[in-house]
Write a structure and sequence with these properties.
By secondary structure, the chain is of the alpha/beta class. It has 7 helices and 22 strands. Bound molecules: flavin-adenine dinucleotide (FAD).
Protein backbone atom coordinates (compact mmCIF):
# COMPACT_ATOMS: atom_id res chain seq x y z
CA UNK A 1 0.00 0.00 0.00
CA UNK A 2 1.36 3.45 -0.88
CA UNK A 3 1.99 5.78 2.06
CA UNK A 4 0.42 8.70 0.16
CA UNK A 5 -2.68 6.82 -0.97
CA UNK A 6 -5.81 9.00 -1.03
CA UNK A 7 -8.80 8.26 1.19
CA UNK A 8 -12.06 6.61 0.15
CA UNK A 9 -15.20 8.75 0.34
CA UNK A 10 -18.29 6.86 1.54
CA UNK A 11 -21.58 8.67 0.97
CA UNK A 12 -24.28 7.44 3.36
CA UNK A 13 -23.74 6.12 6.88
CA UNK A 14 -26.35 3.36 7.07
CA UNK A 15 -25.36 -0.26 7.56
CA UNK A 16 -23.97 -0.32 4.00
CA UNK A 17 -21.78 2.76 4.43
CA UNK A 18 -20.64 1.81 7.94
CA UNK A 19 -19.67 -1.67 6.77
CA UNK A 20 -17.76 -0.40 3.75
CA UNK A 21 -15.99 2.18 5.93
CA UNK A 22 -14.83 -0.23 8.62
CA UNK A 23 -13.81 -2.94 6.16
CA UNK A 24 -11.62 -0.51 4.20
CA UNK A 25 -10.22 1.21 7.32
CA UNK A 26 -9.34 -2.06 9.03
CA UNK A 27 -6.99 -2.97 6.18
CA UNK A 28 -5.28 0.38 6.52
CA UNK A 29 -7.12 2.82 4.23
CA UNK A 30 -8.36 6.23 5.26
CA UNK A 31 -12.11 6.76 4.91
CA UNK A 32 -14.26 9.88 4.96
CA UNK A 33 -17.85 8.94 5.83
CA UNK A 34 -20.54 11.51 5.00
CA UNK A 35 -24.03 11.08 6.47
CA UNK A 36 -26.93 13.48 5.97
CA UNK A 37 -28.69 12.69 9.25
CA UNK A 38 -27.33 13.61 12.69
CA UNK A 39 -26.49 9.95 13.45
CA UNK A 40 -25.16 6.83 11.76
CA UNK A 41 -27.10 3.61 11.21
CA UNK A 42 -29.66 4.60 8.57
CA UNK A 43 -32.98 2.76 8.54
CA UNK A 44 -31.66 -0.25 10.44
CA UNK A 45 -31.36 1.62 13.76
CA UNK A 46 -35.02 2.51 13.35
CA UNK A 47 -36.08 -1.16 13.35
CA UNK A 48 -37.44 -2.76 16.52
CA UNK A 49 -35.82 -6.13 15.87
CA UNK A 50 -34.54 -7.68 12.74
CA UNK A 51 -35.09 -10.95 11.02
CA UNK A 52 -34.13 -13.71 10.80
CA UNK A 53 -32.82 -13.92 14.38
CA UNK A 54 -35.15 -11.24 15.79
CA UNK A 55 -32.24 -9.50 17.47
CA UNK A 56 -32.42 -5.78 18.31
CA UNK A 57 -30.57 -3.47 15.89
CA UNK A 58 -28.15 -2.72 18.74
CA UNK A 59 -26.29 -6.01 18.25
CA UNK A 60 -24.87 -5.35 14.79
CA UNK A 61 -24.84 -1.57 15.23
CA UNK A 62 -22.83 -1.54 18.46
CA UNK A 63 -20.15 -3.75 16.97
CA UNK A 64 -19.80 -1.42 14.00
CA UNK A 65 -19.68 1.67 16.24
CA UNK A 66 -16.96 0.03 18.36
CA UNK A 67 -14.96 -0.73 15.21
CA UNK A 68 -15.39 2.87 14.04
CA UNK A 69 -14.38 4.35 17.42
CA UNK A 70 -11.26 2.19 17.53
CA UNK A 71 -10.18 3.25 14.07
CA UNK A 72 -8.47 6.63 13.71
CA UNK A 73 -8.50 6.24 9.93
CA UNK A 74 -12.27 6.96 9.74
CA UNK A 75 -13.42 10.60 9.68
CA UNK A 76 -17.17 11.10 10.09
CA UNK A 77 -19.22 14.08 8.96
CA UNK A 78 -22.87 13.91 10.06
CA UNK A 79 -25.60 16.34 8.95
CA UNK A 80 -23.57 16.51 5.76
CA UNK A 81 -24.03 15.93 2.06
CA UNK A 82 -21.72 15.89 -0.94
CA UNK A 83 -22.54 18.84 -3.16
CA UNK A 84 -20.01 18.41 -5.95
CA UNK A 85 -17.70 15.71 -7.30
CA UNK A 86 -15.15 16.24 -10.07
CA UNK A 87 -12.17 14.30 -11.37
CA UNK A 88 -11.63 10.62 -12.15
CA UNK A 89 -10.77 7.28 -10.58
CA UNK A 90 -7.77 7.72 -8.28
CA UNK A 91 -8.12 11.49 -8.25
CA UNK A 92 -11.53 12.87 -7.27
CA UNK A 93 -12.28 16.20 -5.63
CA UNK A 94 -15.46 16.54 -3.55
CA UNK A 95 -17.22 19.38 -1.73
CA UNK A 96 -19.00 18.51 1.49
CA UNK A 97 -21.70 20.74 2.91
CA UNK A 98 -22.22 20.34 6.65
CA UNK A 99 -25.31 21.76 8.37
CA UNK A 100 -24.95 23.36 11.80
CA UNK A 101 -25.77 21.10 14.76
CA UNK A 102 -25.39 24.09 17.15
CA UNK A 103 -24.15 21.63 19.78
CA UNK A 104 -20.39 21.63 20.00
CA UNK A 105 -19.44 18.51 21.90
CA UNK A 106 -20.51 14.98 22.70
CA UNK A 107 -21.97 14.27 26.19
CA UNK A 108 -22.14 18.04 26.96
CA UNK A 109 -25.93 18.14 27.18
CA UNK A 110 -28.36 15.85 28.98
CA UNK A 111 -32.10 15.55 29.52
CA UNK A 112 -32.08 17.67 32.69
CA UNK A 113 -31.09 20.67 30.56
CA UNK A 114 -33.91 20.20 28.06
CA UNK A 115 -36.87 19.22 30.23
CA UNK A 116 -37.96 22.82 30.93
CA UNK A 117 -38.18 23.63 27.22
CA UNK A 118 -41.60 24.02 25.64
CA UNK A 119 -40.54 24.32 21.97
CA UNK A 120 -41.07 21.05 20.14
CA UNK A 121 -40.54 19.47 16.74
CA UNK A 122 -41.95 16.36 15.02
CA UNK A 123 -39.77 13.35 15.82
CA UNK A 124 -38.62 12.25 12.37
CA UNK A 125 -36.83 9.24 13.88
CA UNK A 126 -40.31 7.94 14.89
CA UNK A 127 -41.81 8.94 11.52
CA UNK A 128 -43.54 11.96 13.05
CA UNK A 129 -45.68 9.90 15.48
CA UNK A 130 -44.58 12.04 18.45
CA UNK A 131 -42.78 15.26 19.26
CA UNK A 132 -39.36 15.91 20.79
CA UNK A 133 -37.97 19.05 22.39
CA UNK A 134 -36.25 21.44 20.00
CA UNK A 135 -32.93 20.48 21.65
CA UNK A 136 -32.93 16.70 21.38
CA UNK A 137 -30.95 13.50 21.22
CA UNK A 138 -31.94 11.81 17.94
CA UNK A 139 -32.41 8.41 19.63
CA UNK A 140 -31.11 6.24 22.50
CA UNK A 141 -28.25 4.64 20.57
CA UNK A 142 -27.32 7.69 18.52
CA UNK A 143 -23.74 7.80 17.31
CA UNK A 144 -22.15 10.28 17.57
CA UNK A 145 -23.79 10.60 20.99
CA UNK A 146 -24.47 14.31 20.66
CA UNK A 147 -27.64 16.40 20.93
CA UNK A 148 -28.96 18.45 18.01
CA UNK A 149 -30.70 21.80 18.11
CA UNK A 150 -33.56 22.52 15.74
CA UNK A 151 -33.04 26.27 15.85
CA UNK A 152 -36.09 27.04 13.73
CA UNK A 153 -38.34 25.32 16.26
CA UNK A 154 -36.81 27.11 19.27
CA UNK A 155 -38.81 29.96 20.86
CA UNK A 156 -37.15 33.09 22.18
CA UNK A 157 -37.90 32.10 25.80
CA UNK A 158 -36.33 28.69 25.25
CA UNK A 159 -33.29 30.26 23.62
CA UNK A 160 -32.69 32.16 26.81
CA UNK A 161 -33.39 29.03 28.95
CA UNK A 162 -30.82 26.85 27.16
CA UNK A 163 -28.25 29.60 27.23
CA UNK A 164 -28.55 29.53 31.04
CA UNK A 165 -28.91 25.77 31.62
CA UNK A 166 -26.37 24.32 29.16
CA UNK A 167 -22.69 24.38 30.18
CA UNK A 168 -20.42 27.05 28.72
CA UNK A 169 -19.20 26.10 25.28
CA UNK A 170 -21.77 23.28 24.82
CA UNK A 171 -23.79 25.32 22.34
CA UNK A 172 -22.86 27.68 19.56
CA UNK A 173 -26.01 29.44 18.38
CA UNK A 174 -24.04 31.31 15.73
CA UNK A 175 -22.78 28.16 14.07
CA UNK A 176 -23.19 28.29 10.27
CA UNK A 177 -23.00 25.84 7.37
CA UNK A 178 -19.51 24.53 6.78
CA UNK A 179 -17.99 23.74 3.39
CA UNK A 180 -15.22 21.17 3.31
CA UNK A 181 -13.11 20.36 0.23
CA UNK A 182 -11.55 16.91 0.07
CA UNK A 183 -9.45 14.84 -2.33
CA UNK A 184 -10.24 11.13 -2.54
CA UNK A 185 -9.16 8.21 -4.71
CA UNK A 186 -12.43 6.25 -4.82
CA UNK A 187 -16.05 6.73 -3.82
CA UNK A 188 -18.65 4.34 -2.40
CA UNK A 189 -22.27 5.39 -2.73
CA UNK A 190 -24.39 3.89 0.07
CA UNK A 191 -27.31 6.29 0.14
CA UNK A 192 -29.98 3.64 0.79
CA UNK A 193 -33.73 3.96 0.53
CA UNK A 194 -36.91 5.61 1.75
CA UNK A 195 -40.41 4.15 2.08
CA UNK A 196 -42.83 4.58 -0.83
CA UNK A 197 -45.07 7.59 -0.27
CA UNK A 198 -48.50 6.37 0.95
CA UNK A 199 -50.11 9.67 -0.05
CA UNK A 200 -50.08 8.20 -3.57
CA UNK A 201 -52.16 5.20 -2.52
CA UNK A 202 -55.62 6.81 -2.56
CA UNK A 203 -57.46 3.48 -2.55
CA UNK A 204 -55.61 2.48 0.65
CA UNK A 205 -56.42 5.68 2.53
CA UNK A 206 -53.70 7.89 1.08
CA UNK A 207 -52.14 8.36 4.51
CA UNK A 208 -55.32 10.01 5.83
CA UNK A 209 -56.69 7.29 8.16
CA UNK A 210 -55.02 7.36 11.60
CA UNK A 211 -55.18 3.60 12.10
CA UNK A 212 -53.63 2.77 8.73
CA UNK A 213 -49.89 2.90 9.32
CA UNK A 214 -46.89 1.80 7.29
CA UNK A 215 -44.49 -1.05 7.99
CA UNK A 216 -41.70 1.35 9.01
CA UNK A 217 -44.06 3.06 11.48
CA UNK A 218 -44.92 -0.36 12.92
CA UNK A 219 -41.22 -0.89 13.67
CA UNK A 220 -41.20 2.28 15.77
CA UNK A 221 -44.56 1.48 17.40
CA UNK A 222 -43.13 -1.84 18.58
CA UNK A 223 -39.81 -0.35 19.74
CA UNK A 224 -39.07 0.62 23.36
CA UNK A 225 -37.77 4.00 22.18
CA UNK A 226 -40.86 4.49 20.03
CA UNK A 227 -43.81 6.84 20.58
CA UNK A 228 -45.70 4.40 22.84
CA UNK A 229 -42.73 2.86 24.65
CA UNK A 230 -43.14 -0.31 22.60
CA UNK A 231 -46.86 -0.94 23.12
CA UNK A 232 -48.61 -1.68 19.85
CA UNK A 233 -51.76 0.42 20.15
CA UNK A 234 -54.08 2.20 17.73
CA UNK A 235 -52.92 5.74 16.98
CA UNK A 236 -56.50 7.10 17.04
CA UNK A 237 -57.43 6.08 20.59
CA UNK A 238 -54.50 4.20 22.17
CA UNK A 239 -56.52 0.93 22.30
CA UNK A 240 -54.60 -2.35 22.30
CA UNK A 241 -54.65 -3.92 18.83
CA UNK A 242 -56.86 -7.02 18.68
CA UNK A 243 -57.49 -7.57 14.99
CA UNK A 244 -54.93 -6.31 12.50
CA UNK A 245 -54.43 -6.65 8.75
CA UNK A 246 -51.23 -6.42 6.75
CA UNK A 247 -51.56 -5.30 3.13
CA UNK A 248 -48.63 -6.70 1.17
CA UNK A 249 -47.29 -5.03 -1.98
CA UNK A 250 -48.90 -1.70 -1.01
CA UNK A 251 -47.73 0.20 -4.08
CA UNK A 252 -45.30 -2.55 -5.11
CA UNK A 253 -45.34 -4.85 -8.14
CA UNK A 254 -47.79 -2.37 -9.60
CA UNK A 255 -47.26 -0.54 -12.88
CA UNK A 256 -48.93 2.57 -11.44
CA UNK A 257 -46.51 2.75 -8.52
CA UNK A 258 -43.35 0.65 -8.01
CA UNK A 259 -43.24 -2.12 -10.62
CA UNK A 260 -40.60 -4.08 -8.71
CA UNK A 261 -40.60 -6.30 -5.60
CA UNK A 262 -38.73 -4.82 -2.61
CA UNK A 263 -37.63 -8.28 -1.46
CA UNK A 264 -37.99 -7.69 2.30
CA UNK A 265 -41.65 -6.70 2.83
CA UNK A 266 -43.04 -10.24 3.21
CA UNK A 267 -40.43 -11.04 5.86
CA UNK A 268 -41.02 -7.66 7.51
CA UNK A 269 -44.76 -8.33 7.86
CA UNK A 270 -44.22 -11.87 9.15
CA UNK A 271 -41.78 -10.44 11.69
CA UNK A 272 -44.27 -7.73 12.69
CA UNK A 273 -47.06 -10.32 13.00
CA UNK A 274 -44.80 -11.94 15.56
CA UNK A 275 -44.42 -8.65 17.50
CA UNK A 276 -48.20 -8.48 17.76
CA UNK A 277 -48.67 -12.08 18.78
CA UNK A 278 -45.96 -11.77 21.42
CA UNK A 279 -47.72 -8.77 22.96
CA UNK A 280 -51.27 -10.13 22.84
CA UNK A 281 -52.04 -13.84 22.84
CA UNK A 282 -55.60 -13.16 21.65
CA UNK A 283 -54.73 -10.82 18.80
CA UNK A 284 -55.70 -11.93 15.31
CA UNK A 285 -53.47 -11.17 12.34
CA UNK A 286 -54.49 -11.40 8.67
CA UNK A 287 -51.89 -10.97 5.95
CA UNK A 288 -53.24 -10.20 2.45
CA UNK A 289 -50.61 -11.09 -0.12
CA UNK A 290 -50.02 -11.56 -3.84
CA UNK A 291 -47.15 -14.05 -3.39
CA UNK A 292 -45.17 -14.71 -0.23
CA UNK A 293 -41.48 -14.23 -1.01
CA UNK A 294 -39.20 -15.55 1.72
CA UNK A 295 -36.04 -16.57 -0.04
CA UNK A 296 -33.63 -19.32 1.05
CA UNK A 297 -33.39 -20.01 4.77
CA UNK A 298 -35.99 -17.29 5.51
CA UNK A 299 -38.66 -19.79 4.37
CA UNK A 300 -38.47 -21.43 7.81
CA UNK A 301 -39.63 -18.19 9.47
CA UNK A 302 -42.68 -18.21 7.19
CA UNK A 303 -43.55 -21.84 7.92
CA UNK A 304 -43.17 -21.25 11.66
CA UNK A 305 -45.67 -18.36 11.44
CA UNK A 306 -48.14 -20.61 9.59
CA UNK A 307 -48.27 -22.81 12.71
CA UNK A 308 -49.89 -19.94 14.61
CA UNK A 309 -53.69 -20.42 14.58
CA UNK A 310 -54.25 -16.68 15.04
CA UNK A 311 -52.31 -15.75 11.91
CA UNK A 312 -54.19 -16.12 8.59
CA UNK A 313 -52.79 -15.57 5.14
CA UNK A 314 -55.21 -14.66 2.35
CA UNK A 315 -54.06 -14.52 -1.26
CA UNK A 316 -55.54 -11.35 -2.72
CA UNK A 317 -54.58 -7.77 -3.54
CA UNK A 318 -56.51 -5.33 -1.36
CA UNK A 319 -58.60 -3.13 -3.65
CA UNK A 320 -59.92 -0.58 -1.17
CA UNK A 321 -59.72 0.52 2.45
CA UNK A 322 -62.55 2.57 3.94
CA UNK A 323 -62.77 3.99 7.43
CA UNK A 324 -65.83 3.84 9.69
CA UNK A 325 -66.44 7.41 10.86
CA UNK A 326 -67.25 6.79 14.54
CA UNK A 327 -64.94 3.94 15.44
CA UNK A 328 -62.07 4.65 13.02
CA UNK A 329 -62.15 0.91 12.25
CA UNK A 330 -61.12 -0.06 8.75
CA UNK A 331 -63.06 -2.04 6.16
CA UNK A 332 -61.00 -3.88 3.57
CA UNK A 333 -62.34 -5.00 0.20
CA UNK A 334 -60.41 -7.77 -1.42
CA UNK A 335 -60.98 -10.78 -3.64
CA UNK A 336 -59.62 -14.01 -2.18
CA UNK A 337 -58.08 -15.29 -5.41
CA UNK A 338 -58.00 -18.92 -4.24
CA UNK A 339 -61.68 -19.19 -3.20
CA UNK A 340 -62.83 -16.45 -5.67
CA UNK A 341 -64.83 -14.93 -2.81
CA UNK A 342 -65.21 -11.14 -2.49
CA UNK A 343 -64.30 -10.26 1.09
CA UNK A 344 -65.45 -7.21 3.03
CA UNK A 345 -63.63 -7.45 6.37
CA UNK A 346 -63.29 -5.18 9.37
CA UNK A 347 -60.04 -4.55 11.30
CA UNK A 348 -59.03 -2.20 14.08
CA UNK A 349 -55.66 -1.41 12.52
CA UNK A 350 -53.97 -1.91 9.12
CA UNK A 351 -50.29 -1.97 8.19
CA UNK A 352 -49.33 -1.12 4.63
CA UNK A 353 -46.25 -3.06 3.58
CA UNK A 354 -44.77 -0.34 1.41
CA UNK A 355 -41.67 -0.93 -0.65
CA UNK A 356 -38.26 0.68 -0.87
CA UNK A 357 -37.54 3.66 -3.11
CA UNK A 358 -33.86 4.49 -3.63
CA UNK A 359 -32.90 7.89 -2.22
CA UNK A 360 -31.19 8.47 -5.56
CA UNK A 361 -34.62 8.47 -7.24
CA UNK A 362 -35.05 12.02 -5.89
CA UNK A 363 -31.54 13.27 -5.22
CA UNK A 364 -28.87 12.18 -7.67
CA UNK A 365 -25.18 11.89 -6.83
CA UNK A 366 -23.47 15.01 -8.25
CA UNK A 367 -21.47 13.05 -10.83
CA UNK A 368 -22.65 11.29 -13.96
CA UNK A 369 -23.64 7.75 -12.88
CA UNK A 370 -25.83 5.09 -14.47
CA UNK A 371 -29.24 4.55 -12.88
CA UNK A 372 -31.93 1.98 -13.66
CA UNK A 373 -35.52 2.98 -14.51
CA UNK A 374 -36.41 3.35 -10.82
CA UNK A 375 -33.42 5.41 -9.66
CA UNK A 376 -31.27 2.59 -8.22
CA UNK A 377 -27.61 2.92 -9.18
CA UNK A 378 -26.90 0.36 -11.87
CA UNK A 379 -24.21 -1.82 -10.28
CA UNK A 380 -23.58 -3.66 -13.54
CA UNK A 381 -22.20 -0.52 -15.13
CA UNK A 382 -20.19 1.04 -12.31
CA UNK A 383 -18.31 4.16 -13.27
CA UNK A 384 -14.59 3.61 -12.75
CA UNK A 385 -13.73 4.62 -9.18
CA UNK A 386 -17.35 4.97 -7.96
CA UNK A 387 -19.05 1.89 -6.52
CA UNK A 388 -22.59 1.54 -5.18
CA UNK A 389 -23.42 -0.59 -2.14
CA UNK A 390 -26.53 -1.84 -0.34
CA UNK A 391 -30.01 -0.51 -1.09
CA UNK A 392 -28.62 2.30 -3.25
CA UNK A 393 -28.19 -0.51 -5.77
CA UNK A 394 -31.16 -2.78 -5.14
CA UNK A 395 -33.66 -3.55 -2.39
CA UNK A 396 -32.21 -6.16 -0.03
CA UNK A 397 -31.90 -7.27 3.58
CA UNK A 398 -29.07 -6.53 5.98
CA UNK A 399 -27.14 -9.73 5.42
CA UNK A 400 -26.97 -9.04 1.68
CA UNK A 401 -26.13 -5.39 2.30
CA UNK A 402 -23.09 -6.23 4.42
CA UNK A 403 -21.69 -8.65 1.81
CA UNK A 404 -22.31 -6.13 -0.92
CA UNK A 405 -20.62 -3.34 1.02
CA UNK A 406 -17.57 -5.46 1.74
CA UNK A 407 -17.33 -6.10 -2.00
CA UNK A 408 -17.61 -2.35 -2.70
CA UNK A 409 -14.80 -1.67 -0.18
CA UNK A 410 -12.63 -4.19 -2.02
CA UNK A 411 -13.34 -2.56 -5.39
CA UNK A 412 -12.45 0.84 -3.94
CA UNK A 413 -9.18 -0.54 -2.53
CA UNK A 414 -8.33 -2.11 -5.90
CA UNK A 415 -8.96 1.26 -7.53
CA UNK A 416 -6.60 3.01 -5.09
CA UNK A 417 -3.87 0.47 -5.75
CA UNK A 418 -4.20 0.35 -9.51
CA UNK A 419 -0.93 1.03 -11.27
CA UNK A 420 1.25 0.01 -8.31
C1 LIG B 1 -40.37 -2.48 7.11
C2 LIG B 1 -38.98 -2.98 6.88
C3 LIG B 1 -38.43 -3.85 7.82
C4 LIG B 1 -37.14 -4.36 7.59
N1 LIG B 1 -36.67 -5.26 8.49
C5 LIG B 1 -35.49 -5.87 8.22
C6 LIG B 1 -35.04 -6.92 9.07
O1 LIG B 1 -35.70 -7.25 10.06
N2 LIG B 1 -33.88 -7.56 8.73
C7 LIG B 1 -33.14 -7.22 7.63
O2 LIG B 1 -32.11 -7.84 7.37
N3 LIG B 1 -33.54 -6.19 6.82
C8 LIG B 1 -34.69 -5.52 7.08
N4 LIG B 1 -35.10 -4.51 6.27
C9 LIG B 1 -34.19 -4.03 5.21
C10 LIG B 1 -33.15 -3.03 5.78
O3 LIG B 1 -33.84 -1.91 6.29
C11 LIG B 1 -32.19 -2.60 4.66
O4 LIG B 1 -31.50 -3.77 4.24
C12 LIG B 1 -31.14 -1.59 5.16
O5 LIG B 1 -31.75 -0.45 5.69
C13 LIG B 1 -30.24 -1.17 3.98
O6 LIG B 1 -29.16 -0.41 4.48
P1 LIG B 1 -28.49 0.74 3.60
O7 LIG B 1 -27.33 1.22 4.39
O8 LIG B 1 -28.26 0.25 2.23
O9 LIG B 1 -29.58 1.88 3.49
P2 LIG B 1 -30.18 2.86 4.63
O10 LIG B 1 -30.51 2.12 5.84
O11 LIG B 1 -31.28 3.60 3.93
O12 LIG B 1 -28.98 3.87 4.92
C14 LIG B 1 -28.61 4.85 3.99
C15 LIG B 1 -27.99 6.02 4.72
O13 LIG B 1 -27.54 6.99 3.76
C16 LIG B 1 -27.93 8.29 4.19
N5 LIG B 1 -28.06 9.15 3.01
C17 LIG B 1 -29.01 9.11 2.05
N6 LIG B 1 -28.75 10.02 1.09
C18 LIG B 1 -27.62 10.65 1.45
C19 LIG B 1 -26.85 11.69 0.86
N7 LIG B 1 -27.19 12.25 -0.30
N8 LIG B 1 -25.73 12.10 1.50
C20 LIG B 1 -25.37 11.55 2.68
N9 LIG B 1 -26.07 10.56 3.29
C21 LIG B 1 -27.17 10.10 2.68
C22 LIG B 1 -29.24 8.05 4.92
O14 LIG B 1 -29.53 9.13 5.80
C23 LIG B 1 -28.96 6.74 5.64
O15 LIG B 1 -28.34 6.94 6.88
C24 LIG B 1 -36.38 -3.98 6.45
C25 LIG B 1 -36.94 -3.08 5.54
C26 LIG B 1 -38.24 -2.61 5.72
C27 LIG B 1 -38.87 -1.75 4.68
Amino acid sequence: MKADVKPILVIGGGIAGMTAAVEAAEVGYRVILVEKEAYLGGRVVRMNRYFPKMCPPTCGFEINVRRIKQNPRITIHTMATVEEITGEAGDFKAKILKKPRYVTGEYAIDESMTEKLTSERADDFNYGMNQTKALYSPHDMAYPPAYVLDKEALSETDTSTITKTCPDGALDLNMTEEKINIKVGAIIVATGWQPYDVARLDNLGGGQFPNVITNVMMERLAAKGGPTGGEIVRPSDGKKVENIAFVQCAGSRDENHLPYCSAVCCMASLKQARYIREQNENAKVTIFYIDIRTIGSLEKFYYDMLEDQNVSLIKGKVAQINQEPESNDLILDVEDTLSRENLHQKFDMVVLATGMVPNTADVKIPFELNYDDYGFIDGATDIDGIYAAGCAKHPCDVSRVTKDSTAAALKAIQCLNRGE
